């Protein structure tokens, strides 16, 4: 059909309409925030929000690819903490060394995960649970269980504290580039189709002659690398490698992926909807902080987690019902 290979903006944003729920919820929260809070749409709030949540967005993108194969990666939070310490130690050599060093540290754990899952046939849950503990222990060992200050005399902190062209944080620019590249990989390449096929049925994918192991290595290396990049953002943005950070980040990433409409059983997913899911969950906290600032409520961080969990449940319920309606209509 002529023009069938043309860029489809609706597909790019919504994943063929399967993920409308997350976009509707995100738009509704943004409109609510703009209408209710005076400084919600200020440049300061937008930049701060994007800069902080860039860590969770990048981890969620990597997690999305893993889950699309029917796997899971529980190690991403600990790997990010480990990478933040590595990046802090490398910061005296500048961003040219600390950035790739942190990413490679994360990718190394991804390689370990891939080896355990593919070569040793250990279930992903067990393999990544083990590397989660190893990364957390490793971060504490090499840091002496202390935060490691970065070298403020180098250019390393520019990544997390300065804006590209004085407009957007460098972190979110990098995240946007990664997201676009990985969207192309998923939607336009045989590797992306193999990732989805594995989630649909790994046995069938093997019978069809697809390069299953190559794709699985790719997704775990990607997840580890994304976690490593998040660790670099953490060290650069907060001025220190933090071995005790990252607790629960894997759950936030999984939640963002699920909210974005990716099936936990694999075979279906969307990079852009995952980004929207991560933004949505971050926006809930942002709005709760504004509400606390107004003095109308006083919610502790614990109650904010309860509300965030309830909101997550509502969005997933909405997503499930919309998908069920489409299946019946189809």
Protein architecture, described:
With 330 residues, the chain is mostly helical. It has a single domain, classed as ABC transporter involved in vitamin B12 uptake, BtuC (Orthogonal Bundle), CATH 1.10.3470. Helix content is 73%, strand content 2%. The protein contains 14 helices and four strands. It has helices at 9-14, 20-36, 43-68, 76-90, 95-119, 124-143, 158-161, 170-188, 190-200, 202-207, 212-238, 249-259, 271-294, 301-329; strands spanning 148-149, 163-164, 168-169, 240-241. The strands form two sheets. It has a two-stranded antiparallel ribbon. A two-stranded antiparallel ribbon has the order 2-3. Strand 2 and strand 3 form a beta hairpin. The chain is globular and about 60 Å long. Mean pLDDT is 88; it is low at 1-16.
């Amino acid at each position: 059909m002529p023009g069938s290979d043309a860029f489809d903006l609706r597909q790019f944003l919504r994943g063929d309409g399967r993920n409308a729920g997350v976009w509707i919820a995100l738009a509704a929260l943004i409109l609510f925030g703009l209408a209710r809070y005076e400084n919600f749409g200020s440049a300061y709030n937008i930049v701060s929000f994007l800069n902080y949540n860039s860590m969770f967005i990048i981890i969620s993108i990597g997690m999305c690819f893993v889950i699309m194969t029917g796997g899971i990666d529980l190690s991403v939070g600990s790997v990010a903490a480990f990478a933040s310490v590595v990046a802090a130690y490398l910061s005296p050599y500048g961003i040219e060394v600390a950035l790739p060093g942190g990413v490679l540290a994360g990718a190394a754990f991804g390689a370990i995960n891939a080896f355990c899952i593919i070569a040793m046939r250990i279930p992903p849950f067990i393999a990544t649970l083990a590397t989660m503990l190893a990364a957390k222990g490793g971060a504490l060992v090499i840091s002496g269980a202390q935060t490691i200050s970065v070298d403020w005399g180098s250019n390393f902190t520019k990544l997390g504290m300065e804006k590209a062209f004085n407009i957007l944080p460098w972190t979110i620019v990098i995240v946007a580039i990664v997201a676009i590249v990985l969207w192309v990989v998923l939607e336009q390449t045989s590797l992306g189709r193999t990732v989805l096929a594995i989630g649909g049925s790994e046995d069938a994918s093997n019978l069809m002659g697809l390069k299953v192991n190559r794709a699985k290595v790719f997704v775990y290396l990607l997840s580890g690398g994304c976690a490593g990049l998040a660790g670099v953002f953490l060290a650069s943005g907060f001025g220190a490698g933090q071995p005790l950070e990252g607790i629960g980040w894997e759950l936030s990433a999984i939640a963002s992926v699920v909210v974005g409409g990716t099936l936990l059983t694999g075979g279906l997913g969307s990079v852009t909807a995952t980004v929207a899911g991560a933004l949505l969950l971050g926006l809930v906290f942002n709005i709760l902080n504004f509400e606390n600032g107004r003095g109308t409520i006083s919610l502790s961080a614990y109650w904010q987690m309860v509300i965030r969990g309830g909101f997550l449940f509502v969005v997933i319920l909405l997503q499930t019902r919309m998908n069920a309606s489409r299946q019946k209509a189809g």
